[in-house]
Amino acid sequence: MQTEIESDPMIEAPDGSCAVLEVTVNNHPGVMSHVCGLFSRRSFNLEGILCMPLGDGRHSRMWLRVAEGERLEQVIRQVTKLHDVTQVRRHLADHAVFERLEEFFTPHAPSLRDPAPLADNPQEA
């Protein structure tokens, strides 16, 4: 089976910016490790990683936020060669999948879901 690669030809991000890769994979243990390991071995830092199963769970979609660089196209071609990767799509860094996540990781920001305070004594609760 041949892996599909889709890339917007208008994506020419300036230096220091990021790209978002949408990677569809066969869902089984170790797939995320294989994909992330490929980036690690090539000294690419993953700025963000999201992964969720699709439909019946036989496939998953990984979203990877990576720094733009002259070697990124080569790494994308290598990702597509991994056995369990079925599709790779490239998006701009402001893709909606990462847009609101920064709210969850902002220091000292109010929690999006404030849990009720825990009682010191469980019998008081």
Notes on the protein architecture:
The protein is of the alpha+beta class. 22% of the residues lie in helices and 31% in strands. It has helices at 31-41, 72-80, 96-99, 101-104, and strands spanning 4-7, 18-26, 46-54, 59-67, 85-92. A hairpin with a 4-residue loop joins strand 3 and strand 4. The N and C termini lie far apart (57 Å).
Biggest β-sheet: strands ordered side by side in the sheet: 1-5-2-4-3
Report Rg: 18 Å
- Give average pLDDT, whole number: 80
Following the backbone from N to C, one meets helices and strands in this order, namely EEHEEHEHH
Largest sheet: 5 strands, mixed
Note the total helix count.
4
- Poorly predicted runs are 7-14
Approximately how much beta-strand content do the residues carry? 25-35%
Percent in helix: 10-25%
End-to-end separation in angstroms reads 57 Å
What's the β-strand tally? 5
| Global shape | globular
Structural class: alpha+beta
Describe the protein's topology:
Blueprint: E1 4-7, E2 18-26, H1 31-41, E3 46-54, E4 59-67, H2 72-80, E5 85-92, H3 96-99, H4 101-104
Quick gist of this model?
With 125 residues, the protein is an alpha+beta fold.
Properties at a glance:
single chain; 125 residues; alpha+beta; five-stranded mixed beta sheet; 4 helices; 5 strands; globular
